[in-house]
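Message: I would value a second opinion on how I read folds in C-alpha coordinate form. Give me a protein, with the fold worked out from its sequence. Write it directly below this note and I will take it from there.
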Amino acid sequence: ATLDLLDLRRRVRCSSKDAARRRPPRDSSPSWSPEQRFWEGLALLERRRDREAALEQLTMARDQGTGTLRIAATWHSASTLEKLDRDLEALDLLDELIEDSTLPFSTEIGVRLGRLCLREELPFRARHYLERALAEALPGEDLAEAAWTLARFHRGAADPANALGLLRLIRRRSFLGERSPWETWGPLAIYW
Protein backbone atom coordinates (compact mmCIF):
# COMPACT_ATOMS: atom_id res chain seq x y z
CA ALA A 1 0.00 0.00 0.00
CA THR A 2 1.24 3.47 -0.80
CA LEU A 3 1.54 6.14 1.85
CA ASP A 4 -0.43 9.35 1.79
CA LEU A 5 2.57 11.68 2.12
CA LEU A 6 0.44 14.79 2.77
CA ASP A 7 -1.31 13.04 5.66
CA LEU A 8 2.03 11.85 7.01
CA ARG A 9 3.48 15.36 6.87
CA ARG A 10 0.40 16.78 8.60
CA ARG A 11 0.69 14.23 11.40
CA VAL A 12 4.46 14.56 11.89
CA ARG A 13 4.49 18.38 11.81
CA CYS A 14 1.31 18.76 13.86
CA SER A 15 1.18 21.69 16.29
CA SER A 16 -0.11 21.33 19.83
CA LYS A 17 -3.05 23.61 18.99
CA ASP A 18 -4.07 21.32 16.12
CA ALA A 19 -3.78 18.29 18.40
CA ALA A 20 -5.92 19.99 21.07
CA ARG A 21 -8.63 20.71 18.48
CA ARG A 22 -8.67 17.08 17.37
CA ARG A 23 -8.57 15.71 20.91
CA PRO A 24 -11.35 13.14 21.48
CA PRO A 25 -13.99 13.50 24.23
CA ARG A 26 -12.71 12.10 27.51
CA ASP A 27 -15.89 10.22 28.47
CA SER A 28 -15.30 7.32 26.07
CA SER A 29 -11.56 6.76 26.55
CA PRO A 30 -11.60 2.92 26.87
CA SER A 31 -13.14 2.58 23.42
CA TRP A 32 -10.91 5.05 21.58
CA SER A 33 -9.69 4.16 18.11
CA PRO A 34 -5.95 4.33 17.28
CA GLU A 35 -6.66 7.68 15.56
CA GLN A 36 -8.23 9.12 18.72
CA ARG A 37 -5.39 7.78 20.87
CA PHE A 38 -2.88 9.45 18.53
CA TRP A 39 -4.49 12.88 18.91
CA GLU A 40 -4.94 12.43 22.66
CA GLY A 41 -1.25 11.57 22.99
CA LEU A 42 -0.20 14.67 21.06
CA ALA A 43 -2.53 16.87 23.10
CA LEU A 44 -1.07 15.48 26.33
CA LEU A 45 2.46 16.40 25.18
CA GLU A 46 1.61 20.05 25.72
CA ARG A 47 2.18 19.70 29.47
CA ARG A 48 5.47 18.30 30.74
CA ARG A 49 3.90 16.33 33.58
CA ASP A 50 1.70 14.39 31.13
CA ARG A 51 4.51 12.97 28.99
CA GLU A 52 4.25 9.43 30.39
CA ALA A 53 0.50 9.38 29.69
CA ALA A 54 1.15 10.81 26.22
CA LEU A 55 3.70 8.08 25.55
CA GLU A 56 1.19 5.44 26.65
CA GLN A 57 -1.45 6.78 24.21
CA LEU A 58 1.04 7.10 21.35
CA THR A 59 2.33 3.58 21.96
CA MET A 60 -1.20 2.17 21.80
CA ALA A 61 -1.85 4.15 18.60
CA ARG A 62 1.41 2.79 17.13
CA ASP A 63 0.62 -0.80 18.08
CA GLN A 64 -2.95 -0.69 16.74
CA GLY A 65 -2.53 1.73 13.84
CA THR A 66 -1.43 1.22 10.26
CA GLY A 67 0.12 3.30 7.48
CA THR A 68 0.72 6.97 8.15
CA LEU A 69 -0.84 6.77 11.61
CA ARG A 70 1.66 4.10 12.68
CA ILE A 71 4.63 6.02 11.24
CA ALA A 72 3.59 9.32 12.83
CA ALA A 73 2.88 7.64 16.19
CA THR A 74 6.34 6.02 16.06
CA TRP A 75 7.92 9.41 15.28
CA HIS A 76 6.16 11.16 18.18
CA SER A 77 6.79 8.23 20.55
CA ALA A 78 10.52 8.50 19.84
CA SER A 79 10.39 12.25 20.38
CA THR A 80 8.59 11.74 23.69
CA LEU A 81 11.12 9.14 24.79
CA GLU A 82 13.90 11.65 24.06
CA LYS A 83 12.14 14.23 26.23
CA LEU A 84 11.87 11.64 29.01
CA ASP A 85 15.63 10.97 28.67
CA ARG A 86 15.09 7.40 27.47
CA ASP A 87 17.37 7.75 24.46
CA LEU A 88 18.13 4.07 23.88
CA GLU A 89 14.43 3.28 23.54
CA ALA A 90 14.07 6.24 21.17
CA LEU A 91 16.97 4.85 19.12
CA ASP A 92 15.13 1.55 18.69
CA LEU A 93 11.97 3.29 17.45
CA LEU A 94 13.87 5.54 15.04
CA ASP A 95 15.74 2.48 13.75
CA GLU A 96 12.35 1.04 12.77
CA LEU A 97 11.56 4.20 10.84
CA ILE A 98 14.85 4.55 9.01
CA GLU A 99 14.57 1.01 7.65
CA ASP A 100 11.69 2.30 5.52
CA SER A 101 13.68 4.30 2.96
CA THR A 102 10.53 5.59 1.25
CA LEU A 103 9.91 8.18 3.96
CA PRO A 104 10.41 11.75 2.78
CA PHE A 105 12.13 12.74 6.02
CA SER A 106 14.66 9.89 6.25
CA THR A 107 17.55 12.38 6.29
CA GLU A 108 16.06 14.07 9.34
CA ILE A 109 15.65 10.67 11.02
CA GLY A 110 19.32 9.85 10.27
CA VAL A 111 20.50 13.11 11.82
CA ARG A 112 18.34 12.50 14.90
CA LEU A 113 19.74 8.99 15.21
CA GLY A 114 23.27 10.36 14.90
CA ARG A 115 22.68 12.93 17.62
CA LEU A 116 21.15 10.35 19.95
CA CYS A 117 24.10 8.01 19.36
CA LEU A 118 26.57 10.80 20.12
CA ARG A 119 24.65 11.66 23.28
CA GLU A 120 24.68 7.99 24.35
CA GLU A 121 28.40 7.70 23.51
CA LEU A 122 27.96 5.38 20.52
CA PRO A 123 30.25 7.30 18.15
CA PHE A 124 30.72 4.74 15.38
CA ARG A 125 27.02 4.02 15.17
CA ALA A 126 26.51 7.79 15.01
CA ARG A 127 29.02 8.07 12.20
CA HIS A 128 27.16 5.41 10.19
CA TYR A 129 23.83 7.23 10.48
CA LEU A 130 25.30 10.66 9.81
CA GLU A 131 27.28 9.61 6.75
CA ARG A 132 24.18 7.95 5.34
CA ALA A 133 22.13 11.09 6.04
CA LEU A 134 24.80 13.29 4.44
CA ALA A 135 24.81 11.12 1.31
CA GLU A 136 21.01 11.45 0.97
CA ALA A 137 20.74 15.11 1.95
CA LEU A 138 19.72 17.79 -0.51
CA PRO A 139 21.19 21.29 -0.34
CA GLY A 140 19.55 23.13 2.52
CA GLU A 141 18.98 22.56 6.20
CA ASP A 142 19.13 18.75 6.04
CA LEU A 143 22.62 18.85 4.54
CA ALA A 144 23.71 21.48 7.03
CA GLU A 145 22.40 19.49 10.02
CA ALA A 146 23.99 16.25 8.84
CA ALA A 147 27.35 17.89 8.07
CA TRP A 148 27.36 19.90 11.31
CA THR A 149 26.68 16.85 13.46
CA LEU A 150 29.21 14.72 11.57
CA ALA A 151 31.77 17.51 12.04
CA ARG A 152 31.10 17.26 15.80
CA PHE A 153 31.89 13.54 15.57
CA HIS A 154 35.19 14.20 13.75
CA ARG A 155 36.10 16.94 16.20
CA GLY A 156 35.50 14.55 19.12
CA ALA A 157 37.58 11.89 17.34
CA ALA A 158 40.51 14.34 17.10
CA ASP A 159 40.19 14.58 13.32
CA PRO A 160 40.08 18.34 12.68
CA ALA A 161 40.84 18.05 8.95
CA ASN A 162 37.61 16.15 8.26
CA ALA A 163 35.67 18.43 10.61
CA LEU A 164 36.88 21.52 8.75
CA GLY A 165 36.12 19.89 5.41
CA LEU A 166 32.52 19.30 6.49
CA LEU A 167 32.18 22.89 7.69
CA ARG A 168 33.43 24.07 4.31
CA LEU A 169 30.86 21.80 2.67
CA ILE A 170 28.16 23.57 4.67
CA ARG A 171 29.35 26.93 3.40
CA ARG A 172 29.49 25.68 -0.20
CA ARG A 173 26.39 23.55 -0.56
CA SER A 174 23.85 24.08 2.18
CA PHE A 175 22.20 27.31 1.04
CA LEU A 176 21.90 28.69 -2.45
CA GLY A 177 21.86 32.42 -1.65
CA GLU A 178 25.11 34.33 -1.24
CA ARG A 179 23.81 36.32 1.73
CA SER A 180 22.59 33.46 3.89
CA PRO A 181 22.94 33.40 7.69
CA TRP A 182 25.58 30.69 7.28
CA GLU A 183 27.80 33.18 5.49
CA THR A 184 27.80 35.32 8.62
CA TRP A 185 28.22 32.82 11.42
CA GLY A 186 29.09 29.55 9.68
CA PRO A 187 32.83 30.28 9.41
CA LEU A 188 32.90 31.06 13.14
CA ALA A 189 31.98 27.44 13.81
CA ILE A 190 35.62 26.56 13.13
CA TYR A 191 36.41 28.04 16.57
CA TRP A 192 33.81 25.98 18.51
Notes: The chain has a mean pLDDT of 83. Residues 171 and 185 are 10 Å apart (CA to CA). The two ends are 46 Å apart (CA to CA). The first helix runs from residue 5 to 12.
